[in-house]
Give the backbone structure.
Amino acid sequence: MKDRKLLNSELGRLSAEEYRAAQPSGVEVILDNIRSAHNVGSIFRSADAFRIDKVWLCGITPLPPMAEIHKTALGAEDSVRWEHRDDTAALVKELQEQGYCVFSVEQTEHSVKLGDFHRDFGKKYAFVFGNEVDGVSQMVVDSGDGSLEIPQFGTKHSLNVSVCAGVVLWAVTNY
């Protein structure tokens, strides 16, 4: 049996304007001092794919417009709302005051395995993804409502931050 690939025009995707006007997903992303513009672009692309409401670019995280971000985002930096903040921990506190549950995606003593996390679709969430070397800063982990961990079974202790974001965002949006 042959299985024809669909054309982009057959996928029924939202326009950038429709994306921004769509019902909020209740999920935002916080990038805590990400170093690579390519990782930032890839996270924007995943954020668009799963209709994330906003990406917060904190600290030294590269900002659009930038060719390296655009290369991997493929324009998602134009559809997904974003904002820069200098201080990730202060942003976490601000979002909590607005009713968000904030989870760091990090391996901690009490982290919840991603498969055991059950999102309450009546609540708003923000997920923090950390620096490629140091992960989410301890100060940010301490200020959040908890930590999520992707179970891993090989020899490496971490995933690339953009891969991690794709896995987590798929799992928590699962419309």
